[in-house]
Amino acid sequence: MEVKYLYYGSSDSHYTAGQFLSLRQYISDTWRYFSESDIGPRGHYHNGGIIEGLILCFAIVHGFKTYIKKHIIISPFNVFLCVGIVYIIFTLPITELLYLKWTLLGNIQHPWRMLTGYIIIPPILFAFLFEATHHKKVVLVIFIFAIAFFRFPQLYGKNYTDTPQKSFFETYDNLHGTHMNTVWMGEVRDYPFKKEKIEIIEGRGSISEQQILNSSRRFKINALTQVTLVDHTFYFPGWKTFIDGVEIPIQFQDPAQRGVITYQVPAGESEISTIFTRTKPRILGEIISIVSLTIIGLVIILRQRIKLFISHDTK
């Protein structure tokens, strides 16, 4: 709902062509660590990984065997297996038409981003497979050996540029994008870096007892005249400012402070608080999350009760 406030929301679809994976990337562990030109750790490459791919293959075989023997279709194992397969399908070129036609998918921008969901599936499937096997010690030894052989070297990158720690405090090279900027602000690189979060830009006064947090600012001001303050924070719906507990209007379209929170404070001593509050879309999202978790919990409890009832009935 709030995406309409961003440049990102000004386009119906952000799909980028040519960003699909191939099945080979799910059964390959190519990671050129030992080559001279390699840069960065494994995460630099869009690979599902051979270990994860093998787990998925074993899971498919196990799923078929279970169905043939017990005719079980719906089970937690099968649900996770299907989710993993769906994730893979949506990273392949065969789904390009869906990305073009379905805005929700198109807004993912890069199909390979489905890997972020897929990558949690193999460990879950492995847990089910491990529980079902009768040779747990052998499987565990093989699995640990595979992890040590394929993964441990990938924890170490090489050919990095060694830069001072302070260079990571600002990511200037990554400020060129405007997709996630609000429509009432300019390009981030055009804004000067400010060490002080709160400043007086008009009038005379002094600021004291500042408490600056990510989602709130509290301070006291002794204004000798009416003053205009700037909070060097890009405005977004939900930010509210209070003077001695009374809400005041926020301005964020001042040409000199475009998109940044500004407000006026009358002369005198005051206590100011600027807080990022919850909005209706966020409250709705929280309600949906709570209801969903409640339903999942009830389903789990009901499933256990049914199992218990069936076990007692068979006895």
Distance between the termini: 54 Å
Mean pLDDT value: 83
Summing up helix and strand content along with how strands pair, one would put the structural category as: alpha+beta
Q: Bin the helical content.
A: 25-40%
Mind describing the biggest β-sheet? Answer: 5 strands, antiparallel
What is the molecular shape? elongated
Protein name: Membrane protein 6-pyruvoyl-tetrahydropterin synthase-related domain-containing protein
Keywords: Membrane, Transmembrane, Transmembrane helix
Transmembrane segments: 45-64, 76-100, 112-131, 138-156, 283-302
Organism: Candidatus Roizmanbacteria bacterium CG_4_9_14_0_2_um_filter_39_13
Could you provide a short overview of the structure?
The protein is of the alpha+beta class and 315 residues long.
